[in-house]
Amino acid sequence: MRRAGVTIARQRMSARHRRRAIQFRETAINMGGVLIKLGQFFSTRVDVMPKEYIEELARLQDTVPSVPFAQIKELIEAEFGRPLEQVFAEFNPTPQAAASLAQVHLAKLRSGEKVAVKVQRPDIGNLAYIDLATFAYLMQGVERFTSFGKRADIPMIVEEFIRTLGDELDFYREAWNAIRFREMFSDSKIIFIPKVYLEYTTTKVLTLEAIEGYKISDYESLEKVGIDRHEVASEIVQSYMKQVLDEGFFHADPHPGNLFVVAGPEITFVDFGMVGEITPIMKLSLREAIISIAKKDPHGFVIAFQKLGFIKNGIDLRPIERAVQWLFDQYGSVTTRDINLENLASIEEDMREIIRQQPITVPSQFAFLGRALSTLLGLATGLDPKFDFVAATKPYVENLTKFGGQGWQQLVMDEGKQLLMTAYKLPQQMADILEKAQKGELRVKVDAIGITNAIDRGNRGRSASARAMALGFLALAVIALLYLGFDREAYFFGALAAVVVIGLLRR
Fold it and tell me: I need a labelling partner for 327 at 20 to 30 A (CA). Which of 135, 344, 403, 428 fits?
């Protein structure tokens, strides 16, 4: 009876969430502006929103009624300081598409090129400022008066949304994003990025090469002209692996309205206002996380996620490690041979539940990445219901766990340099600590349980510590000898280090 009651309560809560999410989506569509962008932003926040909100807000289409042409004409003339007829040879007053922040018109330059002109909605900057101020004020209340606000990093979420919206309102920035993508795929015969006309671009007007093609979700038209839908799905996924894992710079909004296809196939990306970036340091931490999954090491996985910014410093990691260990136990036997969309959906749901229950906040870049990959999965399976997403991404993920193409000698040298730098900084850090202690500024956090456990482990750890110190000295010797060119001697000390490592592992 009790289980049945809990199930009914959860169903009712889910239905309530669904109704409110639909109400918010419909309100955002009616009001437009920042509310649509806010809904799209929160559709990426699995750490904040229940799954019903995520699903409904992900359906939020950024289409609103267009602005009268007279206002568009006035804005363009103000931006370029001359009449519209002197800027463009032809300009279609009927917009090709209209969204919450801008709308697109087809035009022709005096040199004859056909272009697509993206024009910011008049006064959207002031409206955004008012809406953002209201949003920030409401989120302060969430932080102070709700249990969720005390768990999540509310200031970071607010800052990320403000920064994201600010980036989308800067068309110069979008222009340079497009240029970067065009260079990234300059050698590709399949992925096409339209040319940017910087001389016809300002912070509120963006001019790009006009493109043709069928929307990627127009399956009937794709089949009519003989375009292989499986090939399109494969090329889209491969392009994202290149963006994310090779270049560390990706298109964060790959919905069907931003992808067009012509025979070949040739796939065109448009709308570069929302992008994400994976830095080399992030890629290194991602590699550590993947290796931790392979080793089923929850502590290593959690530490890697903390480095990536998912977990604030000072948080007790033990409950998170236990949750990750449960995930490993639950799905540790699943292999790439038997994984399918159902398995992926189950894993995703369990991860969402852990994120919501634990003090975890998803950084914006990874929220964008999660949304992009989720949209990408939907695109690929829509194009080809039998598409094997795991098989397509496996080579790239395996490559991520390697050392970035470096040999083991270079890896040892890098680690040695880091160890030497730590040793170099240690005396100054100790002096700073002593100085704070003398001034009475030193604060010490005491964990009684941790101290008790440490005493229990003390006797067992002394021998291991001695071996670890010996390993450190041997590693330094290997690095120094390699650096000086004494390869044979370096290999000898490397062999000794290996013996010490085996001893530590056996303990």
Answer: 403
